[in-house]
Structures are given as structure tokens and as C-alpha cells.
Design a protein that fits this description.
Strands 3-2-1-4-7 form a 5-stranded mixed β-sheet, sandwiched between helices. Strands 10-9-8-11-12 form a 5-stranded mixed β-sheet, with helices on both faces. Strands 5-6 form a two-stranded antiparallel sheet. With 322 residues, the protein is α/β, with parallel strands linked by helices. The chain folds into 2 domains: 141 residues, 2-Layer Sandwich (Nucleotidyltransferase, domain 5); 167 residues, ATPase, nucleotide binding domain (Nucleotidyltransferase, domain 5). The radius of gyration is 20 Å and the shape is globular. Strand 8 and strand 9 form a beta hairpin. Helix content is 39%, strand content 20%. Helix 3 packs across helix 10 and helix 6 crosses helix 7. Keywords: ATP-binding, Kinase, Nucleotide-binding, Transferase. It comes from Kuenenia stuttgartiensis.
Amino acid sequence: MLDLCKYIIGVDLGGTNLKAGIVGRDGNILYQFSIKTNAHAESQVISHQICELIAGIIKNVRIEKSDILGIGLGSPGLIDKKGETILFSPNLSKWRDIPIKKIISDTFGLPCILENDANAAAWGEKWVGAGKDVSSLVMLTLGTGIGGGIILDNKLWRGINNTAGEIGHMSIQTDGPLCNCGNYGCIEVYASAPGMVRRFRELLESGKASLLKKDEEITAKRINEAAVQGDGASLSIIEETGRYLGIAIVNIIHILNPGAVVLSGGLIGSGELLMRPVKRTIEERVLKASYKDTKILFSQLGTDAGIIGAAGCLLKELEISA
């Protein structure tokens, strides 16, 4: 029966956007749609949004329920050991202890799998993206927060409590700024989109000239765009972000020695302006024997990695258990 199903619904819950799509069993997205996430809304509101988005996609694409294999959901934050409940998400302030897997399964009468969003995105890249030629990779998702997904010997590594890969909360400065997680000096404070904006505003306050002005809306995307145009202040922030990421990646390489480290998310929009300081910092600090066979790559799936990976996680889970 399951083998006859043609499609999987992949859902990617982010701190900024909620996205869902119909994914074929070859990893291609046939249709997708997104809405803004209200990061401070009650959990019931966000759960309702997810269900409405899934229902809307099924209706708009006009596919039969019998053609849907199931629903894969990638969510930020910590997930319980059974993979059923979202325990805590630093960037969704009221998203705690939510049994979202049961909510979705009961609403649609379909199998559902719940996976950390960075794990899902990493699996997407391993399945049909930048990491399809390696057996082990680490993926960093650079956006509202910094997530991490770890694949070792072609298997997702979740850790004993299903919480492995929280790379964004690796402390790189013991007395650094307070992070949403409650710790200080996490890489997420420095190299996430809000972290970039905070550091950029500090630079403007110090008197640094820029194409972007203090009284206008400043986003990580606008900083990237200004850097591409040659704006000195923006270039310095991208350079600094690359150094922070490079330090984090050195630690990852020394511990896991993966075949690839994949960078994804909105912050990679500056391309080589970001990649150059990342690689330079790695080469300055890494043990050469650990690094010689590791590739540092940008995502091939881009912002689709979460949707594709969530669908791929469901496909893999059901095929393993079949």
C-alpha cells in the first residue's frame, strides 16, 4: 500500500517562516507555499497554522489523500526521545511541550514524523543535495538561529536524548552576550541573522559609514546585499561572521572529521564573501591531518532543504520499518 503512494508532505517550521510542500519520492518539490511565523504566538496558534497550511496545500494541488505517503515535520529546538513532542525552541518563545506529531496524525489520519529542522535539512542535502557523495556530513543552518545536523555513516546522529547537533549553542566566548538559550557567548549570538544585525548596528553607532542608515530597517539580507555592492561596514560584518563560523567548524572537524560541512540558510547569500573568511580561518587553526579530506560546501537545495529533508526523513523511516 505505502509503495503505491506518490507524494510526501514536507513541513519546515522556522522562526521567521512556516513552509510546506508536496515532495515526490525522487526528492523534487512539486508545489510549495509559505506564510509568516508569529514567533511569539501561543503554541495552539502555531499548531493551527501548520494544520491549515497542510490542508491548504492538499486542496490547492488537488491530490487524493490515498496518494500521500505521510507528513514530515522539521521543527527548531529540542525534541523528546520518542520523536513526538517539541520540548523547547529558543526562537519560538511559547513553543514548549507540544505533542505536534499526534496533533498532525490525528488531524489528517496519516503517518507523521517529527524531526529537528536542522537534522531534516541535513538529511535533504544527504539525500539529493550537496552531501549525496559523502557518508558523513555536518550541516549548519544559518538563519534566525543556527542549527546543526549530523550524519555519520549514512545515519542521522541524534544523541542519547535526541538533542545532538545544537551547534548554535556552542560557546565560543565565555563572557559574551546572553543567548536565547540562557547561556552566554554562543555562536548563534554572533553569526545568526539577529547577531549580524546587532553587530552591524553597534558598528554604525561607533560612527562607521555605510550605505545603510541607522534609522532604516536593517536585516541580514540587506547587509548581504550591501556587502555585494562593496559597502565597507557590511563587508566587515560578513568577514567577522565568517571568522566566527570558521572557529566553530574547526571544532566540528576536530571532533567528527566529516566528509563535508555544508552551510545553508539565508546568510549564505553573500557567497564567497562569506566562504573566504570561513576557509581562511579553518586553514589557520585546524589540524591539517583532520582537514585534508573535508569539503566545505554551500547547500545545493537552498531554502528547500528543510521541506525536502522532512519528506525524506519520513520516507526513510517508513521504508526502514516496513
